[in-house]
Known about the structure:
The complex is a heterodimer. By secondary structure, chain A is α+β, with helices and mostly antiparallel strands. Chain A is about 35% helix and about 25% strand. Chain A has a domain at about 65-220: Beta Barrel (Sortase, Chain: A), CATH 2.40.260. Chain A has helices at about 1-5, 15-65, 75-85, 115-120, and strands spanning about 95-100, 105-110, 120-125, 135-140, 160-165, 165-180, 195-200, 210-220. Chain A has an 8-stranded mixed β-barrel. In chain A, a hairpin with a 4-residue loop joins β1 (about 95-100) and β2. The relative contact order of chain A is 0.10. Chain B is an alpha+beta fold. Chain B has a domain at about 20-140. Helix content of chain B is about 35%, strand content about 25%. Chain B has helices at about 1-20, 25-30, 35-40, 45, 165-194, and strands spanning about 50-55, 55-70, 70-75, 90, 95-100, 105, 115-120, 125-130, 140. In chain B, β1 (about 50-55) and β2 form a beta hairpin. The interface between A and B is large, with 75 and 50 residues.
Amino acid sequence: MTRQSTGALSPDSGIIAQMETRYRAILQTLQYACFGCGALCVSLVAFARLDGEIGRQEALSSFVSANYAPDQSLWSEERVRDFKASLSQDAGEPLAVLRIEALGLEVPVYATASDLHLNRGAGLIEGMGQPDSGGNVGIAGHRDGFFRVLKDVAPGQRIELQTRKQRHRYKVVSVEVVDPTDLKLLADTVDPTVTLVTCYPFYFLGHAPQRFIVRGTYEWT
Amino acid sequence: MKFYLAASSLVLALLPAVAGAQQPAICQRVEFSQDVLARFPNIRQACLDVIQKGGHEYAVVKADLIRATARRMTVRVKLPDGTRSEPRAVNVSPGFRLNVNGRSTPIEEVAIGQEITAYLHVSDPGIALAPAEPSDTVVFTPVPAEPEPEPVASAPAEMPKTASRLPLLGALGVALLALGGGFAFLRHRGTYNS
């Protein structure tokens, strides 16, 4: 504006104009870079969420179809044995389905608590019990994923763990927040129990400082 | 109305007697040894039948399976009042088949939570799982005077990693988009001012 009002261009005006042009170019570059990186980050999160949900649904349907027991009354013993062996050949298949009806949670449970498995569902904690063998069955899940609904869990609610052999029912008896170094709730038990583990607080950026532990005891029919 | 109340009370009062009457008489008559009674004080209440195999008598009981491994099962014998005995370990051999819900089931297919039939030796403290076929061999596991401590495993060395980077990534994405918006605002403001 000052340049136009004076009528004649001062010697510095060209430099100033150049600087302004460069300034806008830098702003434009930064703007595009931020938009690009931001869109990439948001897209990755959206993709991971979508992939997790699709993986969950596929795992649940594959578990249901694998759990389908055809009429084997006319089968030979060898054929029945081969059929049962085929059910557990794919290591990527879930071992069980975890349900808490009161929370609307239905998620496949995989053999390990690896990143891949926790993105697709929940995973058994290494070194703890197995669903059909008893002891303390530890199941881990992401607090910002499938296990976020655990924030509303309450004692008395039913936890169901359906394996290919049996439908196990547990009742929530305690909900605790502990330090990550406090492992006593992961210790083995004589009677069957289930222990659900996720990070706490539920809404926290980065590595959450605590663990949210839900303990359930077996319900005998 | 009074009649129905009286009738209901009578039925409720008679229920324990009826339940007691359902205990097989043979379970009341059979002579359990002192060792067996010391280990299973309520064995007469838990007893559903007494069978003979190889010249020995065995009490038939129902039990809940609380732990199942390839060679060892741990059960709690069920009592009529809903309580259960101390955990007792039973050794099993591969290939053994037992009766679960009326079906012959290989031991590898058995899972906790299932109700199974067990035999308790009448004279020697021993326990065995009832085989699917009566002709199958029954292998008894001696029952010690005090319940053996279960071989519980130690806790894992560390908590599982349940933290996901997604929220951080999402927040970073939103922040970058906002920053990009800020740069756009600055750039356009400069244009309008000039």
